[in-house]
Amino acid sequence: MQPKTAWILYDFANSAFATTVMAGFFPLFFKQYWHGGDPVDSTFQLGLANAAASGLILVTAPLLGAVADQGRLHKRLLVGFALLGICATFALALLQAGMAPHALLCFGLGLVGFSGANVFYDSLLVEVAKPAEYERISSLGFALGYLGGGLLFALNVAMALKPQWFGLASSEQALRLAFASVAVWWLVFTLPLLWKVGEKPSRRLSLSLVGDAWRQVVRTLGHVRAHRPAFLFLVAYWFYIDGVDTIVRMAVDYGLAIGLGWKGLIAALLLVQFVGFPAAIAYGRLGEWIGAKRAILLGLAVYVAVTAFAAKLDSATEFYALAVLIGLVQGGVQALSRAYYAHLIPRHMAAEFFGFYNMLGKFAAVLGPLLVGVTGRLAGDPRAGIFSIVALFLIGGAVLLRVRPQVVAS
Fold it and tell me: Where does the record locate the signal sequence feature (predicted)?
């Protein structure tokens, strides 16, 4: 197995958390089982949990990236954060009804593990692929992520809808088993990266290494500002990926809040995965043809239209239609953003620059869920909360237009 294949398989591994836990069953189980109270309040609490976990990544990602650069510890730190996420996800399967604070804690730790590992996963792109391959390899990673997350999610959906087919007593037992299955899936498909992506640490983790890393962060902050294309892109990304991540994390909660049935919502999420698999590959080709920047802007225009319409939808059929549209552009926007940024950064500082990339992306995921939760609570209407996300796509697109598509990295 080639290192680039092993790298791609990590997307196959961790996407199970993004689909089954983050987007699918956790919002459902939290609202109906662990919380069981006012739906507006549960949306608010879910938004706060997302914000807290994302805020922690905001604070630590640049320093962790610098530590990885200084000591060549990218893979070890990736595995460490992945194990945190795996253990926290497995713990969700053990929680009983009414344990909302415990559920939010485990979910938050799972998000920290998932997001923290991605700092180092993204930075390894420049190690396993050549610059001319960034768009293709990055898109293949997201495509395999949709496939992997979708396959396990399909199995978990079948278990939840027809538990008797699997010898299970209830849908509740099926959902518990689903959380455990994500932890096992995530662990198993991380192993190829551990075995095949080579990296020999140059320094041991120590206080002196952390001190050197902190000084590098300060220097790199100046470098990021000096690399104007990369800096402008990060500002744009900060805003528009907020909308993308918020829709992923809050869509099921929003559907439940406006009265749609959980079975239809879960089926729509499953539809996104299988539309997203070929669409991410096709979108990568589109990025090669018209340029990554233009392709990202096209995707953001679709998101604006989808979000505006979502504030008015009132049927499962309309939710399915929006799911298809999101599936067509979601993976492409994510993959091409990563590839476009890789072209704009210094190759030898990839982990630290990707630390800022993930920092801003996850900080945006602080703003998005808070916008949805707080706006919905103040207005007394979840539709107002979801509509607020449109502003993030518009601002992000406007700033992205100012980025010149030149290769700065060398």
Answer: none
Locate the domains of the chain by residue range.
Answer: 3-195+211-400
Query: Model-level pTM?
Result: 0.71
The CA distances from residue 311 to 34, 42, 315, 403, 407, in Å, are: 27, 19, 12, 31, 39
Q: Counting beta carbons within 10 angstroms of the beta carbon of residue 259, is it exposed (0 to 12), middle (13 to 18) or buried (19 or more)?
A: exposed
- In which residue are the tokens 């100012």 written? 402
| pLDDT tens digits, one per residue of 292-313 | 888 999 999 999 988 888 888 7
pLDDT tens per residue across span 226-240: 778 888 898 899 889
Is residue 385 within 8 Å of 375, Cβ to Cβ? yes
Joined tokens for residue 254: 């929003």
Q: Which CATH superfamily is domain 3-195+211-400 in?
A: MFS general substrate transporter like domains (1.20.1250.20)
Cα–Cα distances (Å) from 315 to 156, 259, 288, in that order, read 24, 9, 37
Report in angstroms the alpha-carbon separations of 52 from 30, 48, 293: 17, 6, 31
DSSP-assigned letter for residue 348: G
